Amino acid sequence: MQEFVNTEKYGKLYIDRILFESNFPIIFTCKNDADEIFICVCCQNNIKGCKWLVGKTDAINIIRMLKDELTLRELVRGYSSGRISVDYIDGEYRVEYNNSDWNEDSIYLPKEDSYMFADEGEFADDISYYSTLIKVCYDENYYKNISKKLETINQGFESITDKFNEFVSLFGNISISSKVVSTLNVAGTLSVNTEEYKNQRDYKVTSDSCFDTLLNDNISIEVDFNDCSFIDAA
Fold first, then answer.
1. CA distances (Å), 228 to each of 184, 185, 221, in order?
2. Superkingdom of this entry's organism (predicted)?
3. Residue 185 sits in the same domain as residue 88
């Protein structure tokens, strides 16, 4: 693959697939050595130089854009992270992160209605290609040990049970739903520090088939605990 630009945060980006061009690539994707995917949009090419907006995204949302389920603007601004601006002026690249080029009123962002407006089957090969890049990775070793950074989660559960016991002692019979759903904004590995759920097979982490919101490098994970006996305080 042809090298596009070297970034301090993500390493070298290589042009992987061109989706739209006119004498030069306008909309294309890049990959780095870690096989992360980046959407790249050329938003200026004139006597002042060239400028690209580059965002780290995933194959699923690239496919959604190619199917006109997302606009290009929605993809780069709402379903990408990193927010990289690349300028090429006087033979040199300059890379900045999350600068004014990404502001909502920026002239460099794609237009509001920037769909691909593809003819039927036009991007069939591209969709097939990106489909092969969709990966669901799971390493059970990450979930076998308790993360010290997340010990507060367990402490939180313990404090909840204490409160339930107080309520029962004060008000008598209380009916509380047996389902608890917690949304956690985490970076890294999620572990649950309770003996009952220490083994990954004893609980189930549920989420959509893809993470639709990638506004930053953190992710939101919905953890669904079914049959939590300490919640039933009746």
1. 18, 22, 19
2. Bacteria
3. no
Residue at a domain's end among 131, 151, 168:
131
Count of H-run helices and E-run strands, the chain: 4, 10
Using DSSP, state whether 9 is helix, strand or coil.
coil
Question: pLDDT tens digit string along 95-127?
Answer: 999 999 999 999 999 999 999 998 889 999 999
Provide the whole-model pTM: 0.60
| R_g (Cα) of the chain, nearest Å | 23
Reduced to 3 states, what is the DSSP secondary structure of residue 7? strand
Residues 123 and 147 in one domain: no
Q: How far is the C-alpha of 53 from the C-alpha of 58, rounded, in Å?
A: 16
Do 117 and 68 form a contact (C-beta atoms < 8 A)?
yes
Whose structure tokens read 């313990």? 158
Here the tokens at position 108 are: 């460099």
